[in-house]
Amino acid sequence: MFIDENETPDSWWVSAVLRTIRTVAFVFDVITFPIHLLVQRPWRKRALSRRIKARIISSTENSITISPLTPPCDLHLRLVRDGVTTMEGMLRAATQRWGQRPCLGTRAVLSEEDEPQPNGRVFKKFKMGEYIWRTYADVEREAREFGAGLRAVGCEPRRNVVIFAETRAEWMLAAHGCFTQSIPVVTIYATLGDEAIAHGINETEVSTVITTHDLLPKFKKILAKTPKVETIIYMEDQLKPTDTQGFKEGIKIVSYKNVVELGRESKIASMCSPGAESVRPGAADTAIIMYTSGSTGVPKGVLLSHRNMLATLKAFADAIPIYEGDVLMGFLPLAHVFELLAENLCIIGGVPIGYSTPLTMLDSSSKIMKGTKGDATTLRPTCITTVPLIMDRISKGITDKVSRSGELAAAVFKWSYSYKQTWMRRGYDTPVLDYLIFRKVGGLLGGRVRLMISGGAPLSPDTHLQVKICLCCSVVAGYGLTETTSCGTVMDPHDRSTGRVGAPAAGALLALRDWDEGNYRVTNKPHPQGEIIIGGDCVAEGYYKNPQKTKEEFIDAEGRRWFKSGDIGELHDDGCIKIIDRKKDLVKLQAGEYVSLGKVEAELKTCPIVENICVYGDSSKSHTVALVVPNAPRLAALAQRLQLPAGADPPALYAQPALERAVLAELAEHARKCGLEKFEVPAAVKLCTEVWSPDMGLVTAAFKIKRKDIQERYKEDIKRMYAS
């Protein structure tokens, strides 16, 4: 728990104040309880949270398959009724329904000025204006004109185009422009290095790259490695002119606005107006080639069709309630399938999307000029898509602020947290406390957030609960992969549990299959366990130019396409899934990095201080920890150098924090020499006094570690390491 609500104040007078507050709260609860009981009807909330969300539809001795019980919502039924089967048709249908409503918003940058800091440094700060909105009609027209402009500069239907850009309205417009012309979009993260960018461009054989003013200079180097690139289209900066000089000879550098203008003037623009059929994509056509990291670290391009994307849109529509007046703040990378589909759900659902960046989001963000409001305060969103790493930062920021406040303020906040948590478990909201205590926390994000949707990695139960309490909003976690178009499971917004990822999404089936090597079986008690396999229209066509890997990971059975996730799930009685492990020792950390635990162990075992080692990674955390059986003589010598008691018993000596820190420093130095990445190096260690042997059940007869058994034996030590 980040906030320890059970902590006892040091000062007697703070304790006295808290006792008074508790007494007043008790009297208030007694008086108002009947009102809250009748108005809030907590029994209904508890029933909604506990209801069965999925059912087993088939079972064998080594697998079970479950299906969701979620009925299709109005938006889902409308997509079916209107015959929408492609992303091009989706935008057309959205425009017909929402017409002049605001769709995509961009914050006006009025000026960039130097702001001197107290330490003498000068920071560049933005003076920001209001959001400028494109209506649905504007968005569809501009997307079609951009698509026609792509044809005018030489792009052809079903020939790939790369989008390498930061998240902004023009990213979405460019993608939909490609969809109007049946041009597959290759997405590449804006944060990747030159080698990874060149790999994606060369493998997909693109001749046209769409980028931004800020990223364009990177191509002065990259073009030397990408011989097939002929045209670069850049999205303009609001203030600065773009330098297009110094690029490889023969490369056309064209602005986004010029491409739109070319499309507006071309004959193709009239050909692709609503009602024309010339280049519209089909449901089976490739919409996106999205790159993702595999176990080998070599990026794999996942082929996502229009059918895949519409299947996920329908599933998201059934899982996420949309209300009149909702506004989404978009800032996650659109090159990530989760953000791309979440934003397109908003487009078809009539929810305006206002774009932001981490540098301008809050009033206190690093690029916001003093006296200028941040994006969240200006936009006042009701919905935010996020990832666990950002949720953790929010949670830790709240904790840090509480710890820096005065003793009385901290004590009152912690008591309020505990009070609200108690009533939430019973099915009640706490509107008075929210107004008095937690309103200021929610005000940092504009004061209207009702829903945060977390994806991309498992969300820590502590973070989930703390954000839910302090921001006074629902927090919905989901599970999906690029290979399943981000569709897998989604939490019910009424579900009050934490640490789970919900039931299968609408239209998807989820199977658990025995993984004997890890002792995960569907016959395990109290809950079935096994490898998660997802089936349905959301499952991708396969990997781009990688038929062997496609054959290994994808299955066609029972009239469906299935993907073997490699993740281990546990099925609970209400049909919800909890992610409990990952196959093949590959762990995806909270920030998205993959760590091969076996590889790290193999390198660290060569460190002189290590006799044996087991590295553990929690997907809801940003680092790994290690259980180390040390080399006894070397550890004794290290303890002597640290002037620790020479005659101490091993349990007492091994538990010395100074000794653990010294061993950790040796491991870090050894890891650096071995070439391990920083995120692969354990951030904490536990020195184990017993030598692992086959008799103990912690290693095999061949002395290979039994990871699950070691983790079970030392689970309390693992908790301690992460808590520290």
UniProtKB/TrEMBL annotation:
Cleavable signal peptide: none
Please provide, alphabetically and separated by semicolons, the GO molecular function terms listed in this UniProt record. Answer: ATP binding; palmitoyl-CoA ligase activity
Coiled-coil-forming residues are none
GO CC terms for this protein?
endoplasmic reticulum; lipid droplet; plasma membrane
Q: What GO biological process terms are annotated to this protein in UniProt?
A: long-chain fatty-acyl-CoA metabolic process; neuron differentiation
Location of the AMP-dependent synthetase/ligase domain: 122-544
- Extract the InterPro entries matched here: AMP-bd_C_sf, AMP-binding_CS, AMP-dep_synth/lig_dom, ANL_N_sf
Q: What is its EC number?
A: 6.2.1.3
Q: Which Pfam families does the UniProt record give?
A: AMP-binding
- What is the catalytic activity of this protein? a long-chain fatty acid + ATP + CoA = a long-chain fatty acyl-CoA + AMP + diphosphate
UniProtKB keywords: ATP-binding, Fatty acid metabolism, Ligase, Lipid metabolism, Nucleotide-binding
UniProt superkingdom: Eukaryota
Family named by the database record: Belongs to the ATP-dependent AMP-binding enzyme family.
* Identification of the protein by name: long-chain-fatty-acid--CoA ligase
Q: Which organism is it from?
A: Bombyx mori
